[in-house]
Amino acid sequence: MWRDSFRLQIFCLLMAVLAIVVLVHNFFQLEHLDDDTVSGSNWITENNVQHSLSHTTKTTRKPYCGYKQQTLSKREQAEQASLLAAIQWPKPPDGKIAFVQSTDPTHSDFVIVKPSRFFKVGDQLEVLVRMKDFHGKPKQYGGDYLQARIHSPLLKAGATGRIVDCHNGLYKVFFTLLWPGEVKVSVSLVHPSEAIQVLLRLREERPDRVYFKSSFKSGRYSETTECNVCLPGDLPVCNFTDLYTGEPWFCYKPRKLSCASRISHAKGGYQKGLLTQEESLFFQSDVNIKRPLLSSGPDSVMVKPKAFT
Fold first, then answer.
1. pTM reported for the whole predicted model
2. Mean pLDDT across the chain, nearest whole number?
3. How many angstroms separate the CA atoms of 88 and 203, rounded?
4. Which end of the chain is more exposed for a tag (fewer CB within 10 A), N or C?
5. Is 191 helix (H, G, I), strand (E, B) or coil?
6. Residue 237 belongs to what H/E stretch?
7. Architecture of domain 99-198+282-304
8. CA-to-CA distance for 196 and 9, rounded, in angstroms?
9. In Å, how far from its chain's centre is CA 132?
10. How far apart are CA 252 and CA 258, in angstroms?
């Protein structure tokens, strides 16, 4: 009897030692797995392509935009032309404007047209916005990104206005008065026209300024690569274009895994250092981004209820 008990104890001890050995082996395998996990930037760096997820390079970029070669139907061409026309933005007469000649919200103002007029619900309120530079001189061209609204804090009511760019530094804003009582007007400069031109340049030259990443995994091995609508360089890519909508999307192909092994997708971050020192002056949060304009007269009107007959 004691021999059987001794044999059982020896067997349990051997099983415990075996379990410890397997656990240690798996631990080292996991450590090795971490070493094999690569990113898209490593893929590119190891293939001698000077591109980084976090740094801007001055090398010639060859975006992978094969979708641009596709043939569009007449209906798709008309839709494309309509979309491009909708996002068209006015350009300044000179391609390069000094910062002191750019839009200054502290010198700019707005005025309510006929503020003492008798207004009733349903009427249209007109506001004139006058943009000036940092010298206080009136701007001679448009293209500023403005936001305008009417609001009544007591009623917790608000509405946006329709802005018309006169292309000479003046803007007309039209509001429909939707409720009775005191209605206040607010106008803010979101981006000066000069900043808009910088954003347009980045849209054309750096479509990858916001980059994304996908993870690929097979068994215990995984890789991470960069993804975007266009990818620089002549490296192998995985084509994840939507078959139904035709919306293009590409990822750098993993070194060892197939495109079908993708398991996740997420935003990677933002490219850094895309602006010159002069361009960065157009993007100062406390100077010319989302800054309110002051009114040169009354900033509110009284609205009477609509008369019913």
1. 0.70
2. 82
3. 12
4. C
5. strand
6. strand 237-239
7. Sandwich (2.60)
8. 79
9. 28
10. 11
CA triple 144-148-152, angle to 5 deg: 165
DSSP letter for each residue of 127-144: EEEE-BBTTSPBPS----
- Between 211 and 185, whose confidence is greater? 185
CA 100 vs. chain centroid, Å, equals 27
Say which residue the tokens 């300044």 belong to. Answer: 92
Instruction: Kindly state the tokens that stand for 102.
Output: 């750019």
Q: Are strands 300-304 and 119-120 parallel, antiparallel or unpaired?
A: parallel
First to last CA, the chain: 110
A 10 A CB-CB count for 213 gives 21
- CA-to-CA distance for 56 and 205, rounded, in angstroms? 12
Nearest to 251 by CA among 221, 204, 215: 215
Average pLDDT over residues 114-119: 91
Query: Residue 51 is encoded by which pair of tokens?
Result: 């591109």
Burial class (CB in 10 A: 0-12, 13-18, 19+), 189: buried
Render 4-69 in DSSP notation, one character per residue. HHHHHHHHHHHHHHHHHHHHHHHHHHHHHHHHH-B-HHHHHHHTT----SS----SPP----GGGG
Residue whose pair of structure tokens reads 């490296």 in the numeric block: 235
* Cα separation, 153 vs 141, whole angstroms: 34
**44 has pLDDT over 70:** no
Structure-token pair, residue 218:
């097979």
In the chain, what are the domain boundaries? 99-198+282-304, 210-270
